[in-house]
Amino acid sequence: MDKLTPNQIKKQLGISYLGSCTTSPKLIKSLSRNVMTYGLYLAPHNISGYQVCPESCNCSPYCLHASGRNKLELRKNKGSGSIEQSRIKKTKYFFEHRAMFMHLLIHEIKQAIQKAAAESKELAVRLNCTSDINLEEFVFDGKNILQLFPQIQFYDYTKVPAHLPLTKKYANYDLTFSYSGENWELCEKLLNNGFRVSAVFEDKLPKQYRGYSVIDANKDDARYLDDTGIICGLTYKKVANDYATGKYNRPDTTFITKGASPLCTW
């Protein structure tokens, strides 16, 4: 690997940072639980050319990549904006220049550790804010990111069952499994065996879903602090694709549980 400094890598890549503790409105909410979160946002395969979410077949048009500030930017520009271009660069760099990507990522996490300590906060790291990559692929000098920072809490949401054993292998990794609308049998098995499951509801959260208690996971993102055996309820976040005709079009997808579902207890 070329001996580039983090600033030289950022200049070469044309970005200001890989991840951050202050750019996501959802991650900032975890400060209410005294958690400062370092988050990484990558770009989906249809715009980056690299598959970062292997189980995204029924949710890719509604990916959170196109929500929040990026949604506003995409709608305003009627196409790609600066946020999207930055995420594309980061994604390509991860797959094409892994060593330098990791060199910068490690540098930023070390900075985040210092920032959290200075503010008397616990630091958590979520590397899959808009992706679902196995963290054992984040490797530098023969060690993955979980091994490089064993004292730091990492967490993610996942739709990939093969990722779940990582939580047994690494004490500093937590996963919340995502209900796709089509994988309830597996979700129920996981709920009864020490995991929690996230589910997206259209506009409001029920008290129970399929007999399992639902908590409001919109309040913060620190899922690893939640109990297991529960549904982490999220309300659907509108994305740029929902406005393809110029006005909001209600998504037609199985991963959003409609408010009138008889499976909900209010």
Walk me through what this model shows.
The protein is of the alpha/beta class. The protein has one domain (6-265). It has nine helices and 13 strands. The strands form two sheets. Strands 1, 2, 3, 6, 7, 8, 9, 10, 11, 12 and 13 form an eleven-stranded mixed β-sheet that branches. It has a two-stranded antiparallel ribbon with strand order 4-5. α5 (82-96) crosses α6 (98-118). The longest helix is centred in the middle third of the chain and has 21 residues, at 98-118. The radius of gyration is 18 Å and the shape is globular. The N and C termini lie far apart (56 Å). The model is unreliable at 65-75 (pLDDT under 50).
Question: What descriptors fit this protein?
Answer:
globular; two-stranded antiparallel ribbon; eleven-stranded mixed β-sheet; 9 helices; 266 residues; alpha/beta
Name the overall outline. Answer: globular
First-residue to last-residue Cα separation: 56 Å
Let me know the largest β-sheet: 11 strands, mixed
Instruction: Tell me what portion of residues adopts beta-strand conformation.
Output: 15-25%
- Summarize the amount of helix as a percent range: 25-40%
Q: Identify low-pLDDT runs.
A: 65-75
Helix segment count?
Answer: 9
In round numbers, the mean pLDDT is 87
Structural class: alpha/beta
The tally of beta strands, per DSSP, is: 13
> Looking at the chains present, what oligomeric state does this protein adopt?
single chain
Overall number of structural domains: 1
As a whole number of angstroms, the C-alpha radius of gyration is: 18 Å
SSE succession: HEHEHHHHEEEHEHEHEEEEEE
